[in-house]
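[job 4471] stage=fold_predict status=RUNNING
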Amino acid sequence: MATTKPFKDNVDVLNYALTLEHLEATFYREAMDKFSNSDYTAAGLQTSVRDWIGTIAKDESDHVDALTAAIKQLKGAPVAEGTYNFAYTDLMSFLKLAAPIEGVGVGAYTGAAQYLIDSHALLTAALTIHGVEGRHAAYLNVLTGADPFPAAVEKALTKDEVLAAAGPLIKS
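[job 4471] inference complete, writing structure tokens
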């Protein structure tokens, strides 16, 4: 029985990644606007944590830019940023949502990398983002008391698994 590929071409794979990067970039941008240094100190965290969240926000924005440029270089149309429903009410619930969002991103890149195997340049670009997403996930897991090293081998998530995890956060 033949298995149907979840992506029609490289642009489709990159737009899949871009969809997640838009979600992450918006998530962090909104949190940076919402939470001040005093929110971090009130939660018992150093203000340097906010600086690191700002670095993650910048990284996610850079990922959006890099994927958008790659899609355009391939003569594709990049997906637009959507609207989202981020279910957090305070700084700690934001951080507890950030950790699994990053984990889903890592699993998504792990699962989708095989579909870029015909393009070494795109595969390498995706893996460079994957590595950064892994660092984000580990840092956020430390902040929230979760295991920063949950497995010796990263679980590859299918497109359906990623959409099931991230879908509730996407309004349109």
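[job 4471] summary: The chain has one domain: 10-169.
[job 4471] exit 0
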